[in-house]
Every structure is written in structure tokens, then in C-alpha cells.
Design a protein that fits this description.
The structure holds three protein chains of three kinds. Chain A has helices spanning about 1-20, 20-25, 55-60, 80-90, 100-110, 120, 125-135, 140-145, 165-170, 185-195, 220-225, 240, 270-285, 300-305, 315-320, 360-370, 370-375, 410-415, 430-445, 450-475, and strands spanning about 40-45, 65-75, 95-100, 145, 150, 155-160, 160-165, 195, 205-210, 230-235, 260-265, 305-310, 330-335, 345-350, 390, 420-425. By secondary structure, chain A is α+β, with helices and mostly antiparallel strands. Chain B is built from 14 helices and two strands. In chain B, a hairpin with a 7-residue loop joins strand 1 (about 60-65) and strand 2. The chains are: A alpha+beta, B mainly alpha, C mainly alpha. Chains A and B meet through helix 4 and helix 19 of A and helix 6, helix 12 and helix 13 of B.
């Protein structure tokens, strides 16, 4: 610390002496770190070093003794970032605040790395803040961040699996964006009707494509077919939030202390049917080969008019614009009805590390991030939406005015208007579970196994995984 | 030097003992220098290579995720390994990859070296040598990245030219039967330069008369190539094969980047399974057990190499 | 067997002669054709990479593929440095690689000399022990080394890669071979001139094994500059080397532009090409020598 101080003093001296050159050098960041500074390390993912800088700026302006450092971890998908965090902590590094989507929330809570936030919220003198926050955040998002009765992350963003359309491809084939009540059969008609093949049978434009991952791959079909990978149970507890902050909110009725995904049911007839559906589309040439790794080029396909439909959430709205798609080139609709219209989502936010040396300052950071100030300055939501805000008031049509889609009310509507909507399954062992899920998805989508066989074997592996891990994490 | 003497005297004594201007003193100086010179290497090897191997064996008997205290489980990890489908498939894929990649890089490298060796124009030789060597300068990671695009089924340049020839679009990286072959082709593309240079080096060492005798064109030339030149190159072939096999058994970068082990488990290699358990699920004990399997495979290959080395025939 | 080769052309009938001429011509042209085709096959992916790296994002997946860089979209190269801390990662790669190379040169020059030219008890046993460690793959040690690095507090620092890679059994072995080729008479005359043991090593031997040091340096540079597995485990984001930077360019959920990714590939290749142009003689010699010595 003292060395840094010396350095910066020397820099200041140099600047003063250099006079004119000082003008140039003052562009360099020189931060004088005082002796009693508190440094908090915040882990961020995905977008680069400065994605949370606005939040840090607000905090540092309010409390000059706080210094925020970034620990940037990157991965292709949520489970890779989660694995990086685990490796970081395993390597003895400490962070104060970490990011986790639904995929890893219970993972960090279950490992004892994330601290429960219940007491911090209920004993916060600024109760108006929390009343306002929870009234603005749908209860299902809050519930998805709970584990065994406690809340581990205030939700910052979420993405529900909705259907995106390339409206130009639709129009070329005489289709329109379907209505809210559309069905699986409508979907098949559009998917087949927009697929274009050349003379030798190779597909040139695909009707439907998806990526092999946990959220938003063929998982939405599992839900609307009436299945899931695991049974959904609710842990007891959580009354403090439902009765305390969501009182009178009908949507909060019947919620508990977080989900327990305990019994794998991956080979139920509903799941088999769902897999059969996407396998059939692949065999017909409506869907391209589903690859992992470098093979994934979905945004590229979509924005260049080679693809009509794909599952995505609000996070695509701003990004497609960045890829060069104009407003009106794309639109969105709810997932189609099959046996039901149960939608799914994943949510994201920050958790507080149990090993934090400055938990109060870390908690301040987390609070600022989900406050109005935080949302108004966040680069995730400004100038365009690159992930759907968890707060209803920031997910309204005006937020999507410059980018589209026209049906942007679908995003929050998935929560508000569809009470059956629930999170993707993500128990504390979600990392190996995701590997198993994507592996057997790959088996089926490459024709190596039929859907029934792939899911029977997936089920067997999930059972042995759950037997090995499950007992450690969920109380009886 | 008895232990009773004071340190200062002892120090002076050692100095004297060492600096004595006799043959004995010289021998001592050289011996001490030898130990000193070896110290960094020996210490480093002990700390970072030899020691950790033994620790790995120890760790493989524990169940440990570092966040919670380790549990001693004896040989349970190895029992789990025998039933672990991903380990068995990973082993199979690794062996399949090794055979495909090594056979192609050795045979093609040999053909190219024989052909280049016959070329007398300097600039042509230089061109071919550089062309074949260039891919070796790239990292496996960047090769995997751009080859992933080139081998893309729908929009990759490779399939475009194949469809011009009337072939269907080939799912290079998305078909379970093809994916390991594709990765082996890509890996051989990169390593060709290595085997090529080894054989070129071997050829340039052969005496000219031997080569002239074999340098007959047409069918007889080919037969003579087979019966004269190839045996003469056997040390190089052996070297290229064994180093190739040892490298291929550790394959990770290319399948990890291009396919993440998919589709299904079709390109999951043993090292990838080890990486996933050790550094994705933080299972250090089970990860160590898989690491030991990798180690034993390479140990066996190295012993085979040494055994063949002892029996190899020198033609020069 | 050799009768065909020694037969005089006058002996053969015209048909036989023609066949021989054709076969001779074939023998000249077939290898050249094979080589020509192979060099195109090997260079084409690199050409495509370079030309696509200069193409606007929307056109990167054009069918049919274009080979000439039509758009000259140099901004792809600027984006490489914006999307990930690529400049920093180039610096990391440079520090890690040169740190490792330097460490290997020093330790191997010393150890190789000790094994080749100094006499002491246990020398041969120690030599075999060092050689034997060449059989140990990185995977067999990576978990304990991870724990060690953690306990030393070196995780996510360049030292976590440099230190474990510094002791080199291969380099020691290679340099020992070089020292052994130096005639012992040189040593004797230096001793008569009054050189002490350090001077003998420093002034007589070391300058003479410079080619060996160059071979080791360039092989080691190529290997460590291209490393992927260890950095993936021991480093994080900011300290990543360029190999992982390219991988990162593909972006979250592979949303990165292909042209930008390929621009990153091209950038990462530049330093290795430069090193290759400077030291290709040594690199090629190193590989060929490996084959001769075994």
C-alpha cells in the first residue's frame, strides 16, 4: 500500500514539474489510496472489466473510503464461470462479491461460499428500500435465488425462454408473428414453412435452431410438454420475505424457501416426447447440427437471415442491434402451448462471500446495484437492454423503444401473466448435471442414440450423481 | 575438520580444504561445483515434478473438494473409475485419436520428406519446407478456433468445395463417428511439420550412395524405397511415432475448444475428463485417480520406447 | 536388384526406352505434384484465416468462400484489443514465455555442464533420475502443483507458470549432448592458462554451446507461447496469455464475430513468425537433432 502511495505521489510531482506534459498525463488514472481504505473485490463475468463500474462509482462517491477491485472471470456459459469461481476460491483467493445466475446460486449456497442475506435485509434500517425493491421484482425471481429457506442473491436480471423470429424470413414465406396463444402445431408449420433447401437437399435457411446448454436449449419444450429434469419441490421457510415484503401479492402465494430438485425424472414420457420433437426437426433439416464449442454461431446465422426462429430472452434485444439488425427485423412471442404453456427462466445477481473481510461494504455494493440509481446507470440496461432487468419498472416497452422487439411486453409478461412459470432446474450439483444434460442431448442430436435411450441413460447418470451428491445438500 | 572448531575456523578450513592447490583440491572443487550447478534443476524437479507424482498417488485415495476436509476412501476412486462411462469412453477416444493422428502425421510426413529430399532447386525446397512447417508455429488453441469454422457443416469452406464435387455436406464435428477423425486430421495438419523435419533430417544424414542406389524411378524405385530407405530411417520413424503417441495421449486443446467433448461423449478425451473432474467440479481425489491412469499409459509408452531404443539397428 | 539402374540405354528396345523415359518423367513430376497439392492444402486454411480476418462481420460466412480480402476491414484488428484485454495478454504471454525460456536456459546450462563435464559421486544415478522425469506428463502433477501454488500464494500470477516449467529435464539432456561434443583439449589448455573452474565454464564452454542454447530457447519459446492447458488452470482473465485470449474472443455463448476472432489468431501468430524468421536455423536443427540423437 505504501509503495503505491509513493508511486502516485511521485507521479503527481512529475506531473506538476512537467507542466504542459501534465495535461497529457492527467488522462492516466492516478488513485491515491489512503491508509484506512477498504477494498472489496467484486467478481464479474462476460462483458469485460468495466461492466459494473457505474455501480462502483456511485458507491465510491458516497463512501470515499471504499475502493472496488474487479475480478473478471470468463467462460462460454454460466457453468464455466461458476467453475472458474470455484477454482479461484479453491486456489485460496478471496472475493467479497460474486456473480451467479440461477445455474449456480444453489451451488455456491450449498458449498457454504455464499452467505444468507435474510438478516441483513430484515434488520436494514432502510426498510422502504426493500419494500420498494420487492414490490418491483416478481416473487418467482426472488424464490429462484433462495436455498433451504434463505435468500442468497437479490435478483438483478432474468431471462425467460421466449421465441425470437426473424421477421424478414417470416414475411418472405408469407407468415406473420403468431399471437400469444399459438401452439406447437403453429410452430411446426412456421418452422417447416420457412426452411429453404437447395436442389441437392442441403438446407440454406433454417426454420429453427438452438444451442446445447441448460437454459433455453430444448429445455422449454420439456416444460410445455409437462416434464422436467427433476421433480420440483419447495423447501419450507421464506415466510419472512413472503409475509414481510410480498404481503398482498397474489403471485407470492404458495411459495416456499427455494426449490429442491431432488428426484431426477429425465426419462418421463413427456421429456422423451420433447426430445423426439427437436430430433425430428433436426432429421428433417429444419434445425442445423447442434454443436458445442466453436460450432455455435447462432447470432451470426440469425442476423444474416439464415435462421427464422430460436429461443432467447430479453438479452438478445440489444445484442441483435449491435450485430446490425434494425428495429422491426425481429420480434418475440411466448413459447407456444403444447400440453400447457409453462415457461421457464433463469435469473442472475450477486452473492456475498462468507469469507469476505469487508462484508458491510460488500453488501452496500450489492444494494446499490439493485437500487434505482444502480439500474439507471447500469450498462446492462442502458443505453440498450442486453439482459432483462429484474425490476418490472425497467422492463417496460419504453426500454425497448430504440431496439425493438415490438412485443417486448412478453418479457416481463412471462412472469406476470403466467403463474406457472418457474426456473430451470439447478440444484447445488448443477455443474456436473449440466455436463450430463448437454452430453446426452448431443447423443440424441447426432443420431447416436434414440431419444428414449439417450434419456434412459441420462436418467441413470443423474440418479447416480444425485445419490452421490444429493444427500449432502437438501435437508430431509 | 572436527566439530569442536569454531565456525570461523571451520569456514576457513573448508575454504582451505576446497582451494588447496593440489589434484585433490581440484577434484573437490569440481565436485562441489557439480552439486551447485545441479541444485536448481534437482530442487525444481523434486518440487514440481517428482514430488507431485507421489502426492498424486496419495490424493487419489481421498475424496476432497478443498472446501471441506478430505475423506480417506482407499481405492474407492479407482472402483468408481472402472464403472465411469465417461472415463472408459474418454480412454477409447484418446486411443482412437492417437492411432489416427500418429499414423497420418508419420506417413504423410515421411512421404513429404522423401519428395522434398529429391528436389534440388533451393527456393522450391525452402518454400515447401516453410509451408509444411508453418502450422507448427501456431498454438493448438488457435488452430482449433479457425479449423472449427473451416470444418463447419453448413457454412464452412471445406464442405463448400466438397459439395462442388457432388458430395453431401459432411457433419465433420457434429457426427459421433466422424468427430474424432476430424480432430485427428486437424491435429495432424499442425504436427506434420514436426515429423516432416525429423525425416528430412534423417534423410540428409544418409550417405549419398545408399540414396543413389535407391533413387530409381517407377515401381522398382518404390519397392526399393520400401526395402532400403524406410529401414534406414527406422530410428527416425520410431522417434516420431513415440513422441507423437506421448503427445497424442495428452490431447486436450483441440477437442476442448472445438466440441467440448461432444456430440455426446464422442470427442471427450481422458485428459478432458480429468480436467472436468479436477477443475470444474473440484474433485481433487477423483481427478488424481484419472491423472494416474494418464501417467501409467505414458509410462508404458516410454518404457516401450526405451526397450525399442536398445534394440534399434544403426545403419550408419 | 541394381541391374535395372546400371543397364545402358542402348540395350533396351524403343518401347522399353519410352517406358523408362515416361517413368522417369513421372518420377520427377509426381512428387512435385504431390508436394504442390499438399502445400496448398496446408496453406489454404491459413490464407482463409487471414483473408476472413479482413472482412466485415456480416460477410464472414459467405458461400462460396472468398479468398481475397475484399473489404480490408482493419477495424476487426482494433476490436480484438477492445473486446478482451489483448494488449495485456500479449504482454502476459511475453513475460511468461521469456521468463520460462530464461529460467530454462540458466538451469539447463548449469546442470547440463555438471552432467557432461564435472565428476562427482552419484552423477550417473542423478542423470538417470532427471531423465526418468521426462516420462511424467503434466496431468500427473497438475493437481498437487495447483495446491502448492495456492499455498505459495502464487495463483493467478505469471510465476505459477514460470516456476514449475523452469527445471527442464529435456533441456538438461539436450545441452549435455552439446557440451559432450566440445573437445576436452580446450579445457586442458585453458587450465594451463590459469583459468579457474568458473572461468572454464563461463569463458570456454558457455560460448561454445551457444547453438545448443539457441535450440533450447526457440523450442521452448514455441512450446510455451502456445500453451493452453496450464494457463487455463493457473491464471484468470487479466493474466491470461494470448492463447486463451483468442478463445475468449469467441465470446459469451459464442456471440463473437468470426472476423474478429480470426484477426486475433493472426495477431497471435506474429511474434512466433518473427522468432521463427530469426531463429529458424536453430529450430529446424533442434528438431532434426532430436531425431538423430533420439
Amino acid at each position: 500500500m505504501s509503495a503505491e502511495k509513493k508511486m502516485s505521489r511521485r507521479d503527481l510531482l512529475k506531473m506538476a514539474a512537467a507542466g504542459g506534459t501534465g495535461l497529457v498525463m492527467s488522462g492516466l488514472p492516478v488513485r491515491v489510496i489512503a491508509q484506512d481504505m477498504v477494498t472489496i473485490k467484486v467478481q464479474t463475468a462476460g462483458l469485460g472489466d468495466n461492466s459494473l463500474q457505474p455501480v462502483a462509482d456511485i458507491q465510491m462517491a458516497r463512501n470515499p473510503n471504499v475502493n472496488v477491485e474487479w475480478v473478471v472471470l470468463t467462460g462460454i456459459d454460466h457453468e464455466e464461470v461458476a467453475a472458474k469461481i470455484l477454482a479461484l476460491v479453491a486456489a485460496g483467493e478471496s472475493i467479497d462479491v460474486g456473480y451467479a445466475a440461477t445455474e449456480a446460486c444453489q451451488l455456491f449456497a450449498g458449498q457454504g461460499l455464499a452467505a444468507p442475506l435474510d438478516d441483513r435485509i430484515t434488520s436494514d434500517p432502510d426498510q422502504d428500500f426493500w419494500t420498494d425493491f420487492f414490490s418491483d421484482v416478481h416473487p418467482s425471481l426472488t424464490e429462484a435465488m433462495m436455498y433451504e429457506g434463505s435468500l442468497y442473491e437479490p435478483p438483478r436480471d432474468f431471462n425467460a425462454a421466449n421465441m425470437y423470429f426473424n421477421t424478414n424470413v417470416l414475411a418472405e414465406n408469407g407468415f406473420e408473428v403468431p399471437g400469444e396463444e399459438w401452439t406447437k402445431d403453429d410452430f411446426l408449420e412456421i418452422a417447416r414453412g420457412t426452411t429453404k433447401k437447395d436442389d441437392s437437399g442441403n438446407t440454406e435457411v433454417f426454420g429453427y435452431a438452438w444451442t446445447n446448454r441448460l437454459w433455453g436449449s430444448w429445455m422449454p419444450w420439456i416444460f410445455v410438454a409437462g416434464g422436467n429434469l427433476y421433480t420440483e419441490e419447495r423447501a419450507p421457510g421464506g415466510e419472512w420475505v413472503w409475509d414481510g415484503y410480498y404481503e398482498g401479492d397474489m403471485a407470492a402465494d404458495g411459495r416456499g424457501g427455494g426449490f429442491r430438485w431432488r428426484e431426477p425424472v429425465a426419462n418421463s414420457s413427456e421429456v422423451v416426447e420433447a426430445l423426439q420433437l427437436v430430433v425430428d426437426l433436426w432429421q428433417e433439416g429444419v434445425t442445423p447440427d447442434i454443436a458445442m464449442g466453436t460450432g455455435q454461431t447462432l447470432t451470426g446465422f440469425y442476423s444474416t437471415g439464415l435462421l427464422c426462429m430460436t429461443p432467447a430472452g430479453g438479452f438478445w434485444a440489444g445484442r441483435l442491434g449491435n450485430e446490425g439488425m434494425a428495429k422491426g427485423d425481429f420480434d418475440v412471442q411466448y413459447w407456444p402451448n403444447w400440453r400447457n404453456q409453462k415457461h421457464q427462466f433463469g435469473t442472475g445477481g450477486h452473492w456475498l462471500s462468507t469469507t469476505s473481510t469487508a462484508p458491510d461494504e460488500a453488501w452496500d455494493f450489492m444494494k446499490i446495484e439493485v437500487s434505482h440509481d444502480g439500474f439507471q446507470s447500469s450498462i446492462f440496461f442502458n443505453p440498450v437492454i442486453i439482459t432483462t432487468p429484474s425490476r418490472r419498472s425497467y422492463s417496460q416497452a419504453n426500454a425497448f423503444e430504440t431496439t425493438g422487439p415490438a412485443n417486448s411486453d412478453v418479457f416481463y409478461g412471462t412472469l406476470d401473466d403466467h403463474p406457472s412459470t418457474s426456473p430451470i432446474p439447478a440444484p447445488p450439483w448443477s455443474n456436473p448435471m449440466t455436463t450430463i444434460f448437454t452430453t446426452y442431448t448431443g447423443f440424441a442430436m447426432s443420431g447416436e442414440m434414440g431419444p428414449q435411450q439417450a434419456l434412459d441413460e441420462m436418467q441413470a447418470e443423474l440418479e447416480s450423481l444425485t445419490n452421490r451428491e444429493g444427500r449432502k445438500y437438501y435437508q430431509e | 575438520m572436527t566439530s569442536r572448531k569454531s565456525t570461523a575456523v571451520a569456514g576457513g578450513g573448508i575454504f582451505h580444504w576446497l582451494m588447496q592447490d593440489t589434484m585433490d583440491g581440484l577434484r573437490r572443487r569440481r565436485a562441489v561445483l557439480g552439486y551447485l550447478f545441479l541444485l536448481p534443476t534437482l530442487l525444481g524437479i523434486f518440487i514440481f515434478t517428482a514430488g507431485p507424482v507421489f502426492v498424486s498417488f496419495g490424493l487419489s485415495m481421498f475424496q476432497w473438494n478443498i472446501f471441506k476436509p478430505p475423506d480417506f476412501v482407499g481405492l474407492e476412486n479407482f472402483e468408481r473409475l472402472l464403472e465411469d462411462r465417461r472415463v472408459i469412453i474418454g480412454l477409447g477416444n484418446t486411443v482412437k485419436f492417437t492411432i489416427l493422428a500418429v499414423c497420418s502425421q508419420v506417413s504423410i510426413g515421411l512421404i513429404l520428406a522423401l519428395a522434398v529430399h529429391r528436389i534440388s532447386r533451393v527456393w522450391l525446397r525452402y518454400y515447401f519446407r516453410t509451408a509444411f512447417f508453418l502450422p507448427l508455429l501456431m498454438s493448438g488453441a488457435s488452430v482449433a478456433v479457425f479449423m472449427g469454422y473451416i470444418f463447419h457443416k453448413e457454412f464452412g469452406p471445406l464442405n463448400y468445395y466438397l459439395t462442388l464435387l457432388g458430395l453431401p455436406q459432411i457433419p465433420w464435428l457434429t457426427n459421433s463417428d466422424l468427430v474424432m477423425i476430424s480432430i485427428a486430421i486437424i491435429s495432424a495438419w499442425r504436427n506434420l511439420g514436426f515429423t516432416f523435419l525429423i525425416f528430412l533430417g534423417g534423410l540428409s544424414n544418409l550417405s549419398q550412395e545408399v540414396l543413389d542406389a535407391a533413387d530409381v524411378d517407377g515401381a522398382q524405385g518404390l519397392r526399393r524405397l520400401w526395402s532400403v530407405v524406410i529401414p534406414l530411417l527406422s530410428p527416425q520413424i520410431l522417434f516420431a511415432t513415440v513422441t507423437g503417441v506421448i503427445g497424442a495421449l495428452q490431447v486436450f486443446d483441440e477437442p476442448y475448444i472445438m466440441t467440448r467433448g461432444g456430440p455426446g461423449n464422442a470427442s471427450r478425451t481422458l485428459v478432458m475428463v480429468m480436467y472436468e473432474h479436477a477443475f470444474k467440479d473440484i474433485e481433487f481425489g477423483y481427478g488424481s485417480a484419472i491423472a494416474i491412469v494418464v501417467f501409467l499409459m505414458i509410462l508404458v509408452m516410454s518404457i516401450v520406447q526405451m526397450w525399442l531404443w536398445r534394440n534399434r539397428v544403426f545403419y550408419q | 536388384m541394381a541391374s535395372n539402374a546400371t543397364r545402358i540405354p542402348g540395350d533396351v528396345s524403343a518401347a522399353e526406352h519410352r517406358r523408362q523415359v515416361i517413368s522417369h518423367q513421372l518420377g520427377r513430376w509426381i512428387p512435385l505434384i504431390i508436394l504442390g497439392v499438399m502445400s496448398v492444402v496446408i496453406l489454404a486454411p491459413i490464407m482463409w484465416t487471414i483473408s476472413t480476418s479482413l472482412r466485415a462481420g456480416v460477410d464472414s460466412f459467405t458461400v462460396p468462400p472468398k479468398w481475397l480480402p475484399t473489404d480490408l476491414a482493419v477495424e476487426n484488428y482494433a476490436q480484438v484489443f477492445e473486446k478482451v484485454p489483448f494488449a495485456r495478454q500479449i504482454l502476459n504471454s511475453t513475460i511468461i514465455t521469456w521468463g520460462t525460456v530464461l529460467g530454462q536456459l540458466i538451469t539447463a546450462a548449469l546442470a547440463g555442464y555438471a552432467f557432461a563435464r564435472l565428476e562427482f559421486r552419484g552423477r550417473d544415478t542423478l542423470f538417470w533420475v532427471v531423465l526418468a522425469t521426462m516420462m511424467i506428463p503434466i496431468q500427473a502433477t497438475v493437481i498437487p502443483v495447483f495446491i502448492l501454488i495456492r499455498n505459495l500464494g502464487l495463483f493467478d500470477t505469471v510465476w505459477s507458470l514460470i516456476l514449475p516449467a523452469t527445471p527442464t529435464a529435456f533441456g538438461t539432456f539436450l545441452l549435455r549432448q552439446y557440451y559432450l561434443t566440445i573437445p576436452i583439449e580446450l579445457e586442458e589448455s585453458a587450465l594451463i592458462d590459469g583459468a579457474n573452474q568458473w572461468q572454464l565454464f563461463n569463458r570456454v564452454y558457455l560460448p561454445l554451446v551457444k547453438p545448443g542454447l539457441a535450440v533450447l530457447a526457440i523450442l521452448s519459446f514455441n512450446f510455451h507461447w502456445n500453451e493452453f492447458f496450464r494457463p487455463l488452470i493457473f491464471l484468470q482473465h487479466e493474466n491470461y496469455p494470448i492463447t486463451i485470449g483468442i478463445f475468449q474472443l469467441q465470446g459469451y455463448m459464442m456471440t463473437g464475430s468470426i472476423s474478429v476472432v480470426l484477426a486475433g489468431v493472426v495477431v497471435s501468430l506474429v511474434p512466433v513468425i518473427i522468432i521463427f524468421l530469426i531463429g529458424q536455423r536453430y529450430l529446424i536443427e533442434g528438431i532434426m537433432r532430436g531425431a538423430i540423437k533420439g
